Amino acid sequence: MRPALTVALLSALALAAAACGRSGSPPAKGPSKSLLPSYQVRHGFRLPDSPTWRRARARGHLVVGVKEDQPYLGERNPADGTFSGFDIEIAKMMSASLGFPPAGIRYTTIASANRETALQNGQVDYYVGTYTINALRRRQVGFAGPYYIAGQGLLVRKDETGIHSPHDLDGRKVCSAAGSTPYQRIRADYPRAILVSYDTYSVCVDNLLTFQVDAVTTDDAILLGYVAKAPGELKVTGRPFSKEPYGIGVPRDDTAFRLALDDALSRQEKNGDWRKAYRATLGLSGVPAPKPPPIDRYRTS
Ligand code: GLU
């Protein structure tokens, strides 16, 4: 099924749930525009040591890789093509710090499996889309941050009673995105699960709603967004079973760019922008704003 249809299916379900007025269901709200901060653009900012920044400057805009089907994190509104969510706010904070106004960002949707290549071949200047920092990926790309810590979880249909942890996946069908850390973890640690993969999680969720798989696995932050869209049919089960520190992907050798984004994150965590952005987006899924994790200004050899 194509992503557009997927989003349509989820919206239809959300509407159906709202129309039925099920009690206890959170409203499937979008990010709350009135709460969103606007970020101070650093006019006159220069970063001549960064090839990525110089290229963007010459081009006149930044190209940022994101997700388009992850509610509260990175979601594209099919009606007007605008993007919203916590990752999008992080992308805007970074662009303001690099001297570009919000209108100076071109978003491009990149699936989990294609992120490293997109950064390596210059298709995007940076990437903000639930991107876990790990040693393997750090050999291919750089990471500013982390700016948030998620954990792997399980999404099931509301009437499912047999799945509470990844151990219960033996002989059951579980879906995740190709090239993701949750996919890898199931493959390595729970080999008796029947693992199915697609490019995106929204296709997995369609498969769950149509009884083709028994569970969807990825970060809890992502799963909660799908529950909010279809609270009458879906639930997150059990506890998170990994740590997924989210980083901003950058070209591996552009240390000046990576450290500029680390500085920007620290500043925006201190001045309250990070918290306001969280509250207006991911916070709507019901989890109060955590303390942002310490930033790792690592050295490369
Ligand atoms: N954070 C995990 C990862 O980077 C899962 C979410 C995703 O696929 O974007 O692989």
Plain-language structure description:
- With 301 residues, this protein is of the alpha/beta class.
- It has two domains: 39-150 and 243-285, Periplasmic binding protein-like II (D-Maltodextrin-Binding Protein, domain 2); 152-237, Periplasmic binding protein-like II (D-Maltodextrin-Binding Protein, domain 2, 3-Layer(aba) Sandwich).
- The chain is built from ten helices and 13 strands.
- It has helices at residues 3-20, 51-59, 86-97, 115-120, 135-138, 181-189, 201-209, 220-229, 255-270, 273-280; strands at residues 62-66, 69-70, 74-76, 83-84, 105-109, 126-127, 141-150, 152-157, 173-177, 194-198, 215-219, 234-237, 244-251.
- The protein has a five-stranded mixed β-sheet, sandwiched between helices. Strands 5-1-6 form a three-stranded parallel β-sheet.
- Helix 6 (181-189) links the parallel strand 9 and strand 10.
- It starts with a helix and ends in a 21-residue tail after the last helix.
- Mean pLDDT is 91; it is low at 1-5 and 12-28.
- Glutamic acid is lined by residues 112, 129-132, 177, 180-182, 218-219, 244.
Order of helices and strands: HHEEEEHEHEHEEEHEHEHEEHH
Strand percentage, roughly? 15-25%
CATH level 1 name of the largest domain: Alpha Beta
CATH superfamily of the largest domain: Periplasmic binding protein-like II
Shape: globular
Q: From the coordinates shown, what is the CATH architecture of the largest domain?
A: 3-Layer(aba) Sandwich
Q: How is the biggest beta sheet arranged?
A: 5 strands, mixed
Q: Using the CA coordinates, give the radius of gyration.
A: 19 Å
